[in-house]
Structures are given as structure tokens and as C-alpha cells.
Design a protein that fits this description.
Blueprint lengths: L1 H9 L7 H6 L2 H6 L17 H24 L14 H23 L3 H13 L13 H9 L7 H9 L2 H6 L11 H7 L15 H10 L9 H10 L3 E3 L14 E3 L9 E3 L2 E3 L4 H12 L2 H15 L6 H14 L3 H10 L14 H11 L7 H11 L22 H18 L5 H9 L5 H8 L4 H9 L8
Amino acid sequence: MQAEIAVLRFGLGARPGDLAAAQAEPRAWLMAQLKGAAPLAVNTALAPSEQIFTELLAARERLQDEKREAAAQRAAPDATGAAAFNPVRDAYLPHYRAQVLARAQSAALTTRPFAERLVHFWTNHFAVSADKGAVIGIAGTLENEAIRPHVDGRFIDLLAAVEQHPAMIAFLDNQNSVGKDSELARLAARRGPDKPKREFGINENLAREILELHTLGVNGGYTQADVTTFAQIITGWSIGGGKGRLAGGTPGQFYFRDNLHEPGPKNFLGKTYYQSGRRQGEAVLADLAVHPATARFIATKLVRHFVADDPPPAAVERVARVFIKTGGDLPRVYGALIEAPEAWDADMRKFKTPEDFVFSTLRALSATPQKPEEVVRAFELLGQRQYTPGSPAGWPDTAKSWDGSDALLRRVLWASRVAGRYEQGQDPADLALSCLGAYARPETVTALRRASSASQGLTLLLMSPEFQRR
């Protein structure tokens, strides 16, 4: 049974041969997957953030040109002009679709499913949402550029890479955060009475979410004053590009704008930070990354994700203790999770999210989607649109959010469509044994053998209680 637990609970579901590969030493099979970064398992040439940003800036320039031309002619743009032109759609949507397809293909094909699941875990932990226009085309780049390279390293390196990624900066509007005593604010205040004055202010979004969702947790011991101070500390954390006094840096890359930064020492969580500029914020991140509250918060989320909706306290304590002892060495933290006895309980306590359901189905059927529409439509039907959780809190990770009657009906509909597409050459009963192993209940196998068609059998398998859980 331990091979099944390793593959189904820690991984993404079994491809043919996975259970056999994990059979001899399930824990060693998992630990071997943690060596090195976790790049996509497909050789897809995805555009980097800087290219996508450059394309968007060019699209916006074209839109402004069309608007100016229409205004000069004192006429509204026609249906083929600016009114029909959408820079977000035309510049960003193709990149979003390519990222979603590559992610699904990687999940279907990877030989390191535990590492891939960890990538997905951290992407949801550091959530950005593509329903915000500026993030549509770069939501996937956060995962591929900031998370995949650091999933096997130290938490501080992962944290810094994420918080300085343009997708996170844009999602939480930190590029618009300006210190009241910054160079730019002082310059605006000196403008003459005949010059319009622009209002500048601190944006607390990024600071608050780093504390509440990324490190300490909502009960991590910070105050509103700490949120405000931290927001001042990271003023200037921005994205390259722009014009005038907001110019500088490479579009689509992190850029520190010193003229937006609130200068001077800052007292945060009882400690004074004397560093200047960008280094001040990085010093705070370094302390947050090893804070005991961060260790407990991360440990709780890991145990909830891999073990049970109600995380067993002993497992949380074990993982948190290793996090503190190692300063957030992630492979050793994962190792503590693997060694937790509670993680190997035979009961399948986790109900699959739509993402789990889709990816485990692809792996069971040895299916790899070839068109982005396949993936986009599946997740829109099932209610977990990729890279679009709708809030910085990410997607919920407990059964009560996913096991409603309407959600289950949608799963039946999707399962029947998939079964109809992949029924040829499949024996549902044999497939159940190959992808579920000892978890395949005798009554399920019997029902599959009695199914009137392979399509019906596959649908029954995908909707069986044991396939719906991990």
C-alpha cells in the first residue's frame, strides 16, 4: 500500500509503471525527485516575462495612437479600430493559453510527479490571478521563472524570487506605491501653483499579503503598524519600463525605483532596519523567511495539502521543527513531511480538486492534451480556471470547497467526455488496477467488468470513490 500512497498522495496520480517504480522503496522514490529544480517536462518555447511585457507595451501604444487619431477626426473608432482592439486579449491571451497547455502537458508526462505537485503547491501559496488584466499573460511566468527554479532550494530564495517577480508586483499594484518623503513625492510637492499636482501614496497590498499569506500567517503576531511600515520598506519595488521619471529597467523584469522609495531607517516587528533602498526590503524578507511563525504556517499548509484537511498537530510540529532548524531548507522540510507517520495512513483523506482530477486522469489514460482549448474548457467546466483563483489567498485546499452536488455533476460530464474520447483499446478494470493498485476496491472492479461499454466503464472508474480521492 505504501507505493500507492507515494504515487497517489504525494504525486499527481499513476501513469502506467509508476506504482511498480515506487514499489521497492516508496520514500526513496519520492526523495530522489527532489534533486534539482523542477522545469517543465515538455520542451515548449514559452515567452519570458520581458517579451510579454514588451508586446503589451507596444499594443498599448497602438491603442493610444488609434484613440488620438479618432479624437483628431472627432469621430468614434469604427468596429475595426480601437473599439475592437483589446491589448490584453491580443497581447496576453495567447501567452496565457500556451502556459496552461504546457502546464497540463508537464503534469501528464513528468517522471517527477512529487516535484511537480510541489510546484503546484507553491504556485497556489503565492497566488496571482489572471482575471486581473495586467496579469493574464504573465501568471504562468511566475510559476516557471520564480517557483520552478527554487522549489528544491531555500525558502528565502523562493520567497525573494516570487515577491520580486513582475506578476506579483503587478497583481498587488506595488509599482504604484510611492513613499510620501520619496524623491518623486517631494518633487511633486514643489510644483508651482499653476501646475497640477499628482497625489502619491503607499499601497499596502503586497506588504499585507507577504505577511498574511506568504510568511507569518494571519495570526503571526504583526500589527497594522507593521503592515504600513513594511509597505514603506518595499516602496520602489517595481517593474522595468515606463516613461519620464518612471522610466528605467528592462520591461517585464524587477526594477528598483529609488525615486519612489521611502528613505530612512524603519522599525518593523520590533527591529530597526538601517539598510537603504532595495536592500532594506530584502533584509526584512530574510528575517521573515526564518521566523518561527512562518515555519508553523508553511508546515500547516504542507500537511493540510498532503495529509488531511485537518492537519494532524504532530505532523505539523515535525515539519515546522525541521523548517526552523534548517533555516527553511526545503528538501529537508519535504523530507520531514515524507517521514511523518501520519502521511502514510492508508485512509484516502484528501478529496481531489479539479486540478488533481484532471491531471490524474491524464496520467491514468496516458493522455497528453495537444490544444490549449482542451485544457481551458476542462477547467472552466470544473470551476478551477488555471492561474485564476480570484484572490491572493489561492484556491481552497479542503473537500468542502469541491464536493458539492453541482461540482460532482460537472465531473461526471467531463469524465463521460474524456471516456468517450479515450475508450478505444482501454480495459477499464485493468486500468483501475494499474492506476489505483491496492486501492481499487473489488466491487469497483466488478462493476467495471460488467459495464456495457468501455466508455461507460471508464466513466465509472473516473467517478469511483477511490479515484476521486488521494
